[in-house]
Amino acid sequence: MLKHRGDTNMGLREIRKREGLTQTRLAKLTGLSQPTIAQYENGTMNPNRTTLLTARKLCDALSCSPWDLLEQDEAPYA
């Protein structure tokens, strides 16, 4: 789970590093740009929290992954 301090996703950098990923590699895996990853990490930009929270609630309630909601067999960038 991402840790929040204000509007900043403080846990993103921590999780990325724990997984041994660079910002560039994470960007390639997600289809986001490296500058977007950097902006998320330093808090100058945030993903839409409402969308993220809604998706999480649906997945928790249905015991499914986000990809199940999108009718995909796996993550598109895996």
Which fold name is given in CATH as the topology of the largest domain? 434 Repressor (Amino-terminal Domain)
What form results from the Cα inertia axes?
Answer: globular
Helix content: 55-70%
CATH class of the largest domain reads Mainly Alpha
**The CATH superfamily title of the largest domain:** lambda repressor-like DNA-binding domains
> In what range is the share of β-strand residues?
5-15%
- CATH architecture term of the largest domain: Orthogonal Bundle
End-to-end Cα distance: 20 Å
As a whole number of angstroms, the C-alpha radius of gyration is: 13 Å
**Structural class, from helix and strand content?**
mainly alpha
**Overall residue-averaged pLDDT value:** 78
Parts with pLDDT < 50 across at least 5 consecutive residues: 1-8
For the sheet with most strands, the description reads: 2 strands, antiparallel
Which strands sit side by side, in order, in the main sheet?
A: 1-2
Number of helices: 5
Tally of separate domains: 2
Number of strands: 2
Order of helices and strands: EEHHHHH
